[in-house]
Design a protein that fits this description.
elongated; 231 residues; three-stranded mixed beta sheet; alpha+beta
Length: 231
Amino acid sequence: MSFYICMAKFLKYTQSKFVTTSEMAEEKAIKTKNNEPAEPEKVSAQDTVNEKKTHTSEKKDAGTENDGKKKSHHKTKKDKQAEKIQKLNEKLEEISDKHLRLQAEFDNYRRRTLKEKADLIKSGGESVLAGLLPVIDDFDRALESMKDIEDENPVKQGLLLIFNKLKEFLKQNNVKEIEALNQEFNCDYHEAVTKIPAASEDLKGKNVDVIQKGYTLNEKVIRFAKVVVGE
């Protein structure tokens, strides 16, 4: 009886040992298989064609993107050039406008200067000629006081000679006497000293008497005629 029991235990032990050894061998085989290099996968002709198409498509996309970048860069450069040209045109217009204004101002200045120069030449001796007018007045009064003396009187003849020479000198320098007696009062040439009742209706508003003669130099009044106006 004990013999059979011992044999059963031995068989059971041997069986478990065999199972353990088999499992270890199987595990080892699995590990070895896993460590082996994988068999290269076979590539079909269709896959190769598809890969080439994909690569070509990627190249086209990359080329299109580069072209887009180039066009964008070229467009930006054109915009910058157009903006620069526009700024230069605006600056040119501004300079042209300033030049035209400056030229117009210079022309006005030149005309004004020429006019002032011409006026200065015309009236250059105005002060000298105006200073001679009181002398003419004195000669007028002297001759008026000598109207009852005979014309053959040497003094009267001497005064007339000097007076006529002075009048000729003034005439040569464009000095003219302003007509005032019995003329309509004109404030541009006449200066009213006083007013008196007119002797007739025709003399109303007219100069009935001249107290001091007036003169012009080149149509410019250098002394107003002092008059009495009738009303």
